[in-house]
Amino acid sequence: MQLSGRGVRCVRGGREVLSGLDFTVSSGEALAVTGANGSGKTSLLRTIAGHVAVTGGSIGLEGGEPELTLAEQAHYLGHRDAMKPALSVLENLLFWRDFLGGEISDAGQCLKLVGIEHAKNLPAAYLSAGQRRRLSIARLLTVRRPIWLLDEPTSALDSDGQTLFVGVTRDHLARGGIVVAATHAPLGIEAKQLRIGGAR
Amino acid sequence: MTALAALIKRDVQIALRVGGGALIGVLFFLTVVVLMPFAIGPDLALLTRLGPAILWLGALLASLLTLDRLFMADHDDGSLDLIAMSRTPLELSCAAKALAHWLAAGVPLIVATPVLGLLLNLDAGSTLAVALTLLVGTPALTFTGIIGAALAVTLHRGGLLLAVLVLPLSIPVLIFGVAASEAAISGPVSFGTPFSILAALSLISFVVGPFAAAASLRQGLD
Questions:
Q1: How far is CA B37 from the centre of its chain?
Q2: Which is it for strands A30-34 and A192-195: parallel, antiparallel or unpaired?
Q3: Which end of chain A is more exposed for a tag (fewer CB within 10 A), N or C?
């Protein structure tokens, strides 16, 4: 499987955020996207996820499932964690497991793996920022999708959480997954580097 | 199907929990209808004549009350991004969200109608007729309302804009809803004619609403 972009251009709000960007990531590889604040890291991830239309160039996936679009085979972990404060941790996770569709694994097991099983019946409103991030990581594990698009995945995580994240990502790569992560901090895994733009 | 069932279940759960919108709608409906007799005065004959219109207006405003958060809440917490990346078509997801909104916010209004009919001096038969027209007509209000709710996300404006966009679209539903109720209570038109048109309006909105809302959301994701 190979995710590639050719001359990707992206204009948001009348400003050219990405201009002529090329990248290639294959199965089992991670791509670390770095750059200054406002350089377009999030825009690149949202473009791959299909939330922002490409203005020029193309993004394609070779070797994926032919009936599914790129977005339908990708997980997106953004700044906003898509968890409803009124629902419990487990209810939130079960909803995304049932709704996203695809190969699934046991939700309780995933919560245990990310270390928030003790809080599973607590309303998500009471979680700390780090716990919410762990819950988002549990979502990536519960539904299996080959491509992970991660925006600042380790922000708010403590050192245990970062170790956990590295382990989880390694497993995903070992199973032939693809990771594209926008980050400031080093990811802790071997990754190709993609540096976007200078400060403008 | 599991995906849609999960979405409906989640939205209904959120609406019924503390801070959800289901109870607010009914309380608002109750308040509007209770205020009317105070404003109009103790003229029972007049209240009976205006009863169906008051109930319909109350239901219209109450169903609009919680509609603006329908997509906005999902947009604000990032859920909408993931919903768009699901293997379920966005149109179906919009329809499921509208159905959940109707179950949580529309059905309680219909259940409350018999009680409120007493306050407006409507007899049992008349109240039943109004409740029946609400049962058939309120889905049309919700399913046309989601177009406005989706536009509110696209334009990053909630609240009053939604009312301005949605209320004109609900005029036909209001006309035929009240006409059918009046026909059942006092005639002379047969009940069937306006009632069938009301049912037709609902059916049209089931098709047009989700497609229009999904198209608007795709523009607004950015």
A1: 23
A2: parallel
A3: C
Largest CA-CA distance found in chain A, in angstroms, rounded: 48
ipTM for the whole complex: 0.87
Q: pTM for this structure?
A: 0.89
Query: Tens digits of per-residue pLDDT, A171-180?
Result: 999 988 899 9
Tell whether the model's pLDDT for residue B118 goes beyond 70: yes
> Which DSSP string do the residues of B129-197 spell out, in sequence order?
HHHHHHHHHHHHHHHHHHHHHHHHHHTT--THHHHHHHHHHTHHHHHHHHHHHHHHHH-SS-SHHHHHH
**Rounded Cα–Cα distance for residues B114 and B135 (Å):** 13
Whether the pLDDT of residue B202 is over 90: the answer is: yes
pLDDT band, very low/low/confident/very high, at A199 (cuts 50, 70, 90): very low
Q: Do B82 and A100 touch (CB under 8 A)?
A: yes
Reduce the DSSP state of residue B217 to 3 states and report it: helix
Contacting residues for B218 by C-beta, under 8 A, at least 6 apart: B84, B90
Task: State the alpha helices, DSSP H only, in A49-115.
Answer: 89-100, 107-113
A147-151 and A74-77: which strand pairing? Answer: parallel
Q: In this predicted structure, what is the pLDDT of residue A198?
A: 56
**Cα within 13 Å of Cα(A118), Cβ side:** 3
A91 touches chain B (CB under 8 A): yes
Residue B42 pLDDT greater than 60, yes or no? yes
Which of B2, B66, B69, B85 is the best mutation test for A, with the most CBs of A within 10 A?
B85
Q: Which residue of B has its CA nearest to A79?
A: B78
User: Binning pLDDT at 50, 70 and 90, where does residue B17 land?
Assistant: confident
- Mark yes or no for CB contact B78/A101 under 8 Å: no
The amino acid that residue A174 corresponds to is: A
In sequence order, the 6+-apart residues with CB closer than 8 A to the CB of B191 are B129, B180, B183, B184
List pLDDT tens digits, range B48-74.
888 889 999 999 988 888 888 888 888
Q: Do B14 and A71 touch (CB under 8 A)?
A: no
The reply to whether A99 touches chain B by the CB within 8 Å rule is: yes
